[in-house]
Amino acid sequence: MNHPFLHGGRLFLLVFGSAALWSARGAFAETVPSESDLFFAGTIPQLRIELDAAAQDSLRQEPREYVTATVTEGTNVYLQVALHLKGSVGSFRPLADKPALTLDFSRFQLDLKFHGLRRIYLNNSVEDPSYANEKIGSEFFQSAGAPAPCVTRAMVGLNGGPLRLYVLEEGFTEDFLARYYHRISGELYEPGSGHDVDEALVRNAVEAPYDRKQTALKKLAEATWEPDPVQRWQKLEASLDTRQFLIFMAAEVMLGHRDGYCINRNNFRVYHDLDSGKMIFFPHGMDQLLGTAGLPWQPNWAGLVAQSVMSTPEGSRGYAAVFGVLLTNQFNVEKLTARVDQLVAELRPMLDDDEFGKMKTAADVVKDRLVKRKSSLIAQLSRAPLRPLEFAAGTAHPDGWEIADQPDEGGLDQTRKDGLATLHIAVHAESLASWRTTVLLPRGHYSFQDRVRVAGVAPLPFGAHQGASLRVGGTVGEAHSLMGSSDWRELSSDFEVGQPMERVELICELRAESGEAWFDVAALQILRTD
Question: Which of 216, 252, 419, 511 stands 20 to 30 A from 191 (CA)?
Fold first, then answer.
């Protein structure tokens, strides 16, 4: 493959060592649980879970509170297993449906483990009908040299009900940490009411002294606030395992993990590694990978640490080098699609024809997305470097618009409306569809503006943003939008660039149950408002 960062990739390897040998130990002592048959033998475990009436009533009232369950796998019976329901807005299901579950085997019995694991998650995979994304994502991170929980699939029967397919993932516990670190008593955090290192993260339950001041986390947050880029990188290197984080960033973006830390400040864990004294990021919640083939290889960074790393010359160069190496060495489409086929074949004996057909169809979509993602990334890396947007009299007209989100029912095209050249979006079912471009802007205040026309736009029954709107990726605040039907109307979205030079993603989108929107190409502009 020929792209401009291959030489940089070689340089990165010479400086930092192999991408798979980044840890404080010099290499992974182990990369799988000791009883690895659970995850790598290709067999599908079958679990039966029984809850008494009181436990069921409790879960209906307080689904996040632990109750006691009995879990049976073959001849193995696990008593007094702690269980609660899990899942976010999209994946949560009540007990009577197909609930996602957390099973903690050692919460009520300290020495009890399941295949060497204290805790497992049983994900209902309602947002991934292929049941493959979590597995592919986990193996990709591990092969790239970044710690990630092991994943398999399982057939699960609840309260005497039929066996149904789940994704089984190991929990973030001492068992997971011990595979990568000598000392496992560092603090482990996950998103809570806060979603970044400068906010109120939740302390995960591992054997660590409770640091009420969250000293290591605050040290990392303070490093990101350093205004001088040279000193910022020095402070980042003192508080963050920058080599691991560059791999973490590149893998998240390469896999299109748009619900992870770097792009959405969601679905991650961050750990204070006492071996090195630095913070480490772990991926989580990878059931919605590869949804946007054209996701920029340098997207709009939402995570504070990602922003801070990429705003330094060392971080930007290092990311480009790691990305090139992973794209060349790890993102092997032939091997990845063959792996999906293997995962599908493992499930054939477990499912009836109808279930298997639906799962296989969804897996074929994953394979197609892998092909398209690799093709898009090669094309992106072959382009000339992005140059600062040129302004005349305080106004600039961005171009290079590309389809980013394609609706399942509907379409996007460039057409004419009322004699005007437009970016057109039509949806016929619940959809998010958008045109996007990325521009390079210096520090300042701006307004993203256009004239927009809509017809028959019915809002979605969920979500914060509705209708046709202009948005700037990563910004917070309510964007003005249009619903129903209307003639041409002006829309705008104000934003600020805080770095000396920053990549900004501009979005023309339609979030609707049905309807059409037209964005006037000639009127698409950015105004400097300072």
Answer: 511
